[in-house]
Design goal:
The protein is α/β, with parallel strands linked by helices and about 260 residues long. The protein has one domain (about 5-150, about 175-205, about 250-260): Rossmann fold, CATH 3.40.50.150. It contains 10 helices and 8 strands. Strands 1, 2, 3, 4, 5, 6, 7 and 8 form an 8-stranded mixed β-sheet that branches. It is an enzyme of class 2 (transferase).
Length: about 260
């Protein structure tokens, strides 16, 4: 993950308060509806953020298993640690690089990467490391965005006009690695076999558009640009998304790839 996505504690908390309930929580739920975990197994969630998917895994896993969340951002891990779910498992949290996971080989039965692969500088090395820590019959569940969302597209255009190219690139970054064939080839090259693929279509809900924009990594760019510029950006994004308005709440579609790969 690049330095652009290293977050302050305040930014990590905003992400957890706004982006998780709006998008990453629902994505975690949708992913887990497609997954069957054997009882008493060991599971790792890589690039776990503040633990939205990790907590869903812990709720679903039966028996005496092990649930681990890892993320490069120490601040994300701090927020994750403070949100222990109501379940039988005590979650483990590590702030570490995906290419240097602090686990022995063949430790885990399942690995998850939810919207993390696109941010790994060395994707091949990351996937090879994930393959290393999985047992021979282990599985990887990986999601990446399938298309630029209308929200991020509108936000990037507004940022380009009023803030600058760098901020616009940040807004599009989550969707920078969406070629399904390329992802599939990377998985195979890392030693995986594609067991299943399916597209997911979710709905991102915006009750407070400004708050969700300010929970993104471009918050610092907007604060530096000033209140007037921020207001213009929010207004232009709201106008661009007006067709998704349902009784004051924006319901914006987002498409994702779901790959299930066998180690």
């Amino acid at each position: 993950m690049t330095d652009n996505f290293r977050l302050t504690k305040e930014a990590a908390q905003k992400y957890n308060n706004h982006s998780v309930p709006a998008m990453f929580g629902p994505l975690a739920e949708a992913t887990m509806q497609k997954v069957q975990l054997r009882s008493g197994t060991c599971v790792i969630d890589i690039a776990c953020g503040t633990g939205a998917l990790t907590r869903e895994i812990a709720r679903k896993l039966t028996g005496k298993g092990r649930v681990v969340g890892v993320d490069l951002n120490e601040t994300m891990i701090e927020v994750a640690r403070s949100n222990q779910p109501d379940c039988r498992h005590v979650l483990e949290w590590y702030a570490t690089d995906v290419t240097e996971l602090p686990f022995e080989g063949a430790t885990f039965d399942y690995a998850f990467i939810q919207q993390g692969l696109q941010f790994f500088p060395d994707k091949s090395a990351a996937l090879q490391e994930v393959h290393r820590i999985l047992r021979n019959d282990g599985q990887l569940f990986l999601t990446c965005w399938r298309a630029v969302s209308p929200f991020n597209g509108a936000l990037a255009k507004a940022l380009e006009r009023h803030v600058g190219t760098d901020a616009a690139i940040k807004a599009r970054a989550p969707f920078s690695f969406r070629d399904g064939e390329l992802i599939s080839n990377l998985l195979v090259d890392a030693g995986f076999k594609i067991a299943r693929y399916e597209p997911l279509v979710l709905e991102r809900r915006f009750i407070d558009l400004r708050a969700q924009i300010m929970a993104l990594p471009i918050e610092t760019d907007l604060r530096d640009a000033g209140a007037d510029v921020t207001n213009k950006v929010v207004e232009e994004v709201a106008d661009a998304l007006s067709r998704y308005d349902k009784e004051g709440v924006l319901h914006v579609p987002q498409e994702a790839h779901l790959f299930v790969a066998a180690a």
